[in-house]
Amino acid sequence: MRFVSAEQVAQLAGVSRSAVSRTFTEGASVAPATREKVLKAAEELGYHVNDLARGVLANQSRLVGVVATKPEIGFRAHLTAALTKALIRRGSIPVLINTGETEEELLAAQKMLIGHRAEATVILSGSPPASFFELAQRNGQPLVVIGRSEPDADRVLAGNAEASREAADTFIAAGRRRLAVIASRSATPSIAERENAFVIAARASGFEARIAHGRDSDYDGGVIAARALFSEGERPDAIFCANDLLAFGAMDVIRQEFGLSIPQDVALIGFDDVPEAAWLSYGLTTFRQDPATIAARAVMLIDRRQQNPDEPRALERVIPQLVFRKSFLHP
Q: Which residues form the HTH lacI-type domain (predicted)?
């Protein structure tokens, strides 16, 4: 590819190379007549400033890394979309790195971002090792972690425990007594926190919640967990699902394989409020996480860290709101 250069613009405009540079540098001094000639030549040639070169000279780019595992699935897809939009509005260039959850993969992603002088990294997946944070600190790169408690990074957390307690209390207030929770064996910290908080809240009210796990926190995981719950033991009359994808799988099994009615026989509450939760075939009562709010908080933490590098690590909590639909009506 042959990109139009600043030198070509200077030749067409009949000005110096430095005049072209000053024209496209915010706050730089340049005569109005010179600016007009440069802009006219740039428009004619289709010239754009080489931001990559500027970033190299400044030892920092406008790149912001977004590290995620399976960013196309469930709530994470909507959060990734909201985060990239928020970064673009900020004037940043989001770079999505679809990686696994092993230490080796996370460190490889980080080294790639630091090598390209990314100004910050936002982590949506995995549990980074201590060396991850040490390397970022040595290079002055802000880190924001979403959905997990990491004392060495700024973080945005959902109110998992608050929502889970509310789910248990709301079921009990509605007269539901045979409680259960569906989560997964490959649980993220957020999924595990929701499961544990629900069980503890139920026990505090005098009820034992059955626990069923799928392999992963997805639709198939909900199918597997629901089959286990309804194939043996006392059938639950209320289920809290640690995310909406698990709930969708459970709902299809409850209706189609066991012939039960929702919410008459079994009430369900999910977590995330992905768009499919409002579909007529599901109508899932669920806790809404707003991706735009979480993304805005993450961007705010990046800005705060760049302005105040030595401040204590910050925590932003976003409390989900319960949205009632037909899978569990308001008591």
A: 4-58
From CA 199, how far away is CA 135, in angstroms rounded? 38
Residues 140 and 179 in one domain: no
CA-to-CA dists, residue 46 to 18, 39, 43, 53, angstroms: 19, 10, 5, 18
What pLDDT is stored for residue 57 in this prediction?
46
Asked if 211 and 285 sit in the same domain, the reply is: yes
Local structure of 308: helix, strand or coil: coil
Is 327 a member of any domain?
Answer: no
- Identify whether 278 is part of a domain: yes
Which alpha helices (DSSP H) does 232-326 contain, by range?
244-256, 291-307
| Overall domain count for the chain | 3
Helix (DSSP H) and strand (DSSP E) numbers for the chain: 12, 12
**117, 140 Cβ separation under 8 angstroms:** no
Retrieve residue 121's tokens. 């990294």
Residue 274 vs residues 9, 56, 74, 156, 290: alpha-carbon distances, Å: 49, 40, 7, 19, 9
The reply to whether 104 falls in a domain is yes
pLDDT in tens, 267-307: 999 999 999 999 999 999 999 999 999 999 999 999 999 88
**Do residues 153 and 170 share a domain?**
no
Residues 234 and 282 in one domain: yes
24, 30, 34, 57, 176 from 27: Cα distances, Å: 9, 9, 15, 18, 65
The radius of gyration computed from the CA coordinates of the chain, to the nearest angstrom, equals 25
Helix axes 6-13, 32-45, angle to 10 degrees: 120
23 and 133 share one domain: no
Amino acid at 87: L
The residue segments making up the domain with residue 198 are 160-289
- Cβ(183)–Cβ(211) below 8 Å: yes
- N- to C-terminal Cα distance for the chain? 64
Residues 275, 225 share a domain: yes
User: Which residues of the chain carry a pLDDT beneath 70?
Assistant: 1, 50-61, 100-101, 125-129, 331
Q: Are residues 126 and 171 in the same domain?
A: no
Give SS3 for 319: coil
